[in-house]
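Long-time lurker, first post. I've been practising inverse folding by hand and with some scripts of my own, and I keep getting stuck on stretches where the structure tokens seem ambiguous. Below is the full token string for one chain I'm working on. Before anyone asks, I'm not after the true native sequence, just a reasonable design that respects the backbone. If someone could post their per-position residues I'd love to compare against what I wrote down in my notebook.
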């Protein structure tokens, strides 16, 4: 259905369900939203059912906005807002988006700013004519969040984005072509390996790229096969869907814009912020190590401009025959399984992304019940026959014992962590252990992007589990703001910590010891036998972390002063503390499949070493009685 047909349909149905007294001054399509402008905004402010009824009848997302002519001037609107907003909402800031007619209200208590059944927001629409958007004030200051919010409100950017959304709408609601229906997936990366995750979903009318990461352990082929004939030219891709922000899924997404892609990116709101944070750090590390950087910061900003955030459970059209819904995958903040509905009930696929099918200290377990499902493309990081992890309580106990043993011999503890996910889990464990007196009084330092990533977790408590969410909402008991945590502010501070004699605990990126500040602590502490490095996350094949985990006695590190590499003896204790992974172990993966509803007809496995994928596929066929396959990169599977 073309844009013109969508607008005609909405106008026709609107005359049937909306009072004759209401006139629409304009109807536009912005991405998958149909935006109706009216001077009679008060009718909709007092009756939300009208919008709901219209949306249900046309089966499209409907947004009602006031015609620009009835919006109050900004100064008068701001004054009226101060009268409408209750004091207990604790409004921190108000900003106006003149291009889109939105007023962004930042409040400590968003629920109070919205009001019961939206009564406060309805009053705002009625009284000032601007469309109110309430956002939560971050309990911890996040530079990334602040910069992105300000960037998107820049007049030039907002105007460009409005034109971009109109362009996306025309592409989403274009006429379909005649011909045989089919659904295919091409493996572009991350199959029979961990890293450079990338898939291409193709139908008769659409091409969608899911994830675009790099492989930190593969220097020869770190990128997905984006030169495959199915992918090029990039202008032919309808959309990019990002399941989560980890670099093995998101690192090369801005590179697409370098090579000509200018379409939409769909992800959850926190994934947009986290991906930007990690991508900027990726550039920094590549430059520091003298490696080629495949894009620059402008390409990251371009990807932010083109991102259309979706919350869990929201369904949207992303192409003429594809609808997308995100579901919690339990892996990291904002991580999602992507559910694609093809055509009018033709076929349904789920790309699991990385999943954790267990309640953790941070998140609820992954969702595995879907409206419909024929094909599942699933991760298998820990799919090997013996890939079993201890309970998180056991992991907590082991980590506490390792730290106490090291402190008793006056050593330092270095914990390489991913900035997103593992850092916050370890922080929660340490905060609880210190508060219960299970750890000796030892300073804890956070180095790298950990502090910023943690601030983003505090900014999105609705994506965390109930217990943690409530602690952050109350704002008096936010565990991430515990006084035991110290932010490493500079290289001078880092050097001072490295040279200390007394015990210390350092959480530092990167989690696979392939760059970042963790390398500096390793350089200083590796030769001393009283120190300990603790691995709490997956170490991919070919990474420094894996070599150390396997007992390397000497490593070569980059010499920043003189260039080249220098040998470093490894005498420190190397410990692996299981139970902290954001990936499901073998038991959880099998439980996920046994309880998934509805049962898929076929399962494709990726994101795992070749042997583990084959072992997992064999178990699925024998124990769950599902058709499980392990494609190679560049292989295409047709489902229908």
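-- Answer (accepted) --
I ran through it position by position. Result:
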């Amino acid at each position: 259905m073309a844009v013109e047909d969508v607008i005609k349909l909405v106008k026709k149905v609107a005359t049937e369900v909306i009072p004759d007294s209401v006139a629409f001054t304009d109807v536009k399509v912005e991405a998958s939203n149909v935006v109706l402008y009216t001077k009679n905004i008060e009718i909709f402010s007092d009756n939300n059912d009208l919008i709901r009824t219209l949306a249900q009848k046309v089966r499209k997302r409907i947004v009602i906005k006031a015609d620009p002519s009835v919006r109050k001037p900004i100064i008068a609107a701001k004054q009226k807002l101060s009268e409408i907003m209750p004091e207990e909402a604790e409004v921190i800031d108000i900003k106006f988006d003149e291009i889109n007619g939105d007023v962004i209200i930042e409040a400590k208590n968003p629920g109070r700013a919205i009001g019961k059944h939206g009564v406060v927001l309805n009053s705002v629409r009625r009284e000032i004519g601007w469309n109110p958007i309430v956002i939560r004030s971050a309990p911890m200051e996040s530079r990334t969040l602040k910069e992105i919010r300000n960037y998107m409100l820049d007049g030039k950017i907002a105007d460009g984005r409005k034109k971009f959304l109109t362009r996306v709408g025309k592409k989403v609601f274009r006429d379909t072509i005649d011909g045989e229906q089919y659904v295919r997936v091409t493996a572009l990366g991350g199959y029979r390996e961990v890293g450079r995750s990338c898939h291409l979903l193709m139908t008769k009318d659409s091409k969608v790229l899911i994830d675009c990461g790099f492989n930190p352990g593969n220097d020869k082929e770190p990128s997905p096969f984006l030169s495959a004939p199915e992918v090029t030219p990039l202008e032919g891709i309808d959309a990019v869907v990002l399941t989560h922000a980890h670099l093995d899924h998101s690192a090369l997404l801005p590179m697409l814009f370098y090579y000509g892609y200018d379409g939409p990116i769909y992800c959850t709101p926190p994934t947009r912020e986290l991906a930007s944070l990690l991508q900027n750090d990726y550039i920094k590390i590549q430059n520091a190590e003298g490696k080629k950087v495949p894009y620059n910061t402008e390409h990251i900003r371009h990807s932010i401009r083109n991102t259309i955030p979706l919350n869990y459970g929201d369904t949207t059209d992303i192409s003429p025959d594809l609808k997308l819904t995100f579901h919690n995958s339990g892996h990291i903040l904002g991580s999602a399984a992507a559910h694609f509905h093809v055509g009018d009930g033709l076929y349904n696929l789920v790309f699991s992304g990385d999943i954790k099918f267990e309640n953790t200290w941070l998140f609820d377990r992954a969702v595995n019940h879907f409206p419909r499902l024929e094909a599942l493309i699933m991760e298998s990081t820990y799919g090997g026959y013996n890939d079993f992890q201890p309970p998180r309580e056991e992991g907590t106990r082991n980590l506490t014992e390792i730290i106490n043993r090291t402190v008793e011999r006056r050593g330092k503890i270095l914990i390489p962590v991913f900035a997103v996910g593992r850092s916050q889990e370890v922080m929660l464990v340490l905060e609880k252990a210190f508060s219960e007196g299970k750890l000796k009084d030892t300073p804890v330092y956070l180095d790298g992007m950990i502090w910023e990533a943690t601030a983003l977790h505090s900014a999105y408590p609705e994506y965390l589990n109930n217990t943690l969410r409530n602690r952050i909402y109350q704002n008096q008991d936010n565990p991430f703001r515990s006084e035991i945590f110290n932010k490493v502010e500079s290289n001078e501070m880092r050097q001072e910590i490295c040279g200390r004699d007394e015990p210390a605990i350092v959480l530092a990126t990167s989690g696979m010891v392939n760059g970042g500040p963790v390398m500096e602590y390793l350089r200083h502490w590796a030769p001393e036998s009283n120190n300990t490095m603790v691995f709490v996350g997956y170490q991919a094949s070919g990474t420094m972390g894996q070599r150390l985990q396997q007992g390397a006695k000497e490593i070569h590190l980059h010499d920043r002063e003189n260039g080249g590499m220098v040998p470093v003896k490894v005498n420190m204790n190397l410990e692996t503390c299981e139970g902290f992974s954001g990936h499901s172990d073998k038991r959880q993966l099998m439980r996920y499949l046994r309880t998934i509803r509805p049962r898929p007809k076929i399962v494709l496995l990726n994101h795992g070493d070749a042997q583990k994928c084959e072992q997992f596929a064999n178990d699925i066929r024998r124990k769950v009685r599902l058709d499980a396959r392990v494609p190679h990169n560049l292989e295409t599977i047709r489902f229908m």
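A couple of notes from the structure itself: The domain at 3-69 is CATH 3.30.300.230 (GMP Synthetase; Chain A, domain 3). The mean pLDDT is 92. Happy to go over any region you disagree with.
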